[in-house]
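Sample 3 of the quickstart, ligand flavin-adenine dinucleotide:
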Amino acid sequence: MLAARIVGALRAIVGDDAVIARPSEVKVYECDGYTLEKSAPEVVVLPRSTDEVVRIVRLLHAEDLAFVPRGAGTGLSGGCLPINAPVMIGTSRMNRIVELDCDNRRAVVEAGVINLSVTNAVRDRGLCYAPDPSSQQACTIGGNVAENSGGPHTLKYGVTTNHVLGVELVLPSGEVVQLGGAVEDIPGYDLTGLVVGAEGTFGIVTQVILRLVRQPEACKTLLAVFDSVDDATAAVSGIIAAGMIPAAMEMMDQVIVAAVEAAFHAGFPTDAGAVLLIELDGLEAGLDPQMQRAVEICRTTRSRVVRVAADNVERAALWRSRKRAFGAVGRLAPNYCTQDGVVPRTKLPEIMRRITAIGQRHQLRIGNVFHAGDGNIHPILLFDERNADEVRRVLDAGAEILAACVELGGSITGEHGIGIEKIAQMPLLFSPADLLVMSQLRQVFDPERHCNPGKIFPTPGSCVETRRPHRQAAA
Ligand SMILES: Cc1cc2nc3c(=O)[nH]c(=O)nc-3n(C[C@H](O)[C@H](O)[C@H](O)COP(=O)(O)OP(=O)(O)OC[C@H]3O[C@@H](n4cnc5c(N)ncnc54)[C@H](O)[C@@H]3O)c2cc1C
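Result:
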C-alpha cells in the first residue's frame, strides 16, 4: 500500500485533479486492449509537462518505487499493465504539438498527442504523419514509439522507427536526455532507434521529433473478393512479384467481413472467403496503368469481384470499415483477443490452415485480419470472459498460433509488442544469451528496473502457467 505521504507528495507536484487514487477510479486503468489479464495501479498521476514528469520520477526513484508509463491504453499485449509497480504515469495531458516545421517536414510533439492529430495539423500543407495504426484516432505518439507501431500503410511507408528522428526521454533516475535530433544521420550509436520499440522499459518518452511526409498526389483503392484466402494470397504475391509496392494490402477473412458488413454496410459480400483491399498511391500519371495491372492479377488469381473505388467518398468508406474491423467484432462475442504474429507472405495459406485447425481443436471461433503485404496476421479469438474454461482455451490457442508462426519462419509479434502477453514465447525466438544481452542493454537505461518492470523478459523457469496466479485473471 502506497504511503499517504507519497500520494500527498505527488499531489503537491501535479495538483489534486491530476492524481487518481480511489480504488473505484483506478480500476479504469486495470488493463489495456488485452483484457485477459488485469491489475490496477494504486495511483495514477497525470503530469502536464516534462518538468512534472521529472519531479514525479525523482520522487519515485528516491522512494525506490517502480512505475509504468501509459498513453491511451490501446495496447494489445498488456504493456501498460502495472506489475509490481504501484504508480502509473499517464501522458494524456501532455498533448501539445510543440512545433510544426513544414518546410523541413518536422513536427515536435508531446508524448500524449494522439496519432491522427499530427496529420490533422499538417493536412492543409499537403503533409501527413505516415504510420497509421487502426487505433490512430485514440493511440498516442508515446505509445506508438514504445511499441514501434505499424498500420495498413507500413508496407510502403515503414513503421514508427522510420519516422522518428529524436526523442526526449526521462530516465528512471529522473535525468532528462535528448536522443537523436531534427537533422538526419546524426553520428554515433542510434539510441533513438533503441528507444523505439523498447515498450517503455527505458524511461518515459516526453517529446518526440517526427518526420512528416508529403501526401501522395493521387490514391486509388481496389476491393477484390475471393472465394478463399489461398487465392487472395496468390494475388498479394503476384502484385509484389510484378514489381509494384502498394501503399497497403489488407485482407479480411469471412468471419470478419460478415461482422464489418453488418456494422458498416460498405458493400462487402458476406459469403466471400476473403476480401482484399489494395491501395496504390503516387503520381497521378502512372497510377491508372498500375491499377489496371493489379486488377488483371486479381482476376488471374480467381477474384470473383474486382471493384476500384469510384471516388474519395467510396475509398474512405472502404478504409473506415477496415480500420473499424476490431470494433465490429464486438457484435460477435462479448470479448475478443487480438493475436499478432508474422509469417513469410508465401506462408499465409499455411498459417491460415493451422489457425483453423487450432480453433477447431480448442472449440473457438477465430476471425482473421491481416496486413497481408507484410505477412502480419491478426487472428481474433472470440470468447466470453465469464467462461473460465474458454479463457484458458483462448490462452492456449494463442500460444499455439504464435508457435506455428515461428515454426513457419516468422515471429511472435509484428507490431503489438511482447508486453506481458508474449513473455513465455520469447524463448521460441531468442536464446538465453540473446535475452541476456537485451537485459543488459536495458540495465544501461534502467539499472533498478523501475520503469515498467515485469515486461518482455521471461524470468528463469517462467511460463504462462507460473505467471497467471500473480495477477488477477479476467475470468
Ligand atoms: C482497435 C485497435 C486497433 C489497433 N491497430 C493497430 C495497428 O494497426 N498497428 C499497431 O501497431 N497497433 C495497433 N493497435 C495497438 C495499439 O493501438 C498500439 O500499440 C499503440 O501504439 C498503443 O498506443 P497507446 O498510446 O494506447 O499506448 P498504451 O497502450 O498506453 O501503452 C503501450 C506501451 O507503451 C508504453 N508507453 C506509453 N506511453 C509511453 C511513453 N510516453 N513513454 C514510454 N513508454 C510509453 C506503455 O508502458 C506500454 O508498454 C491497435 C489497438 C486497437 C485497440
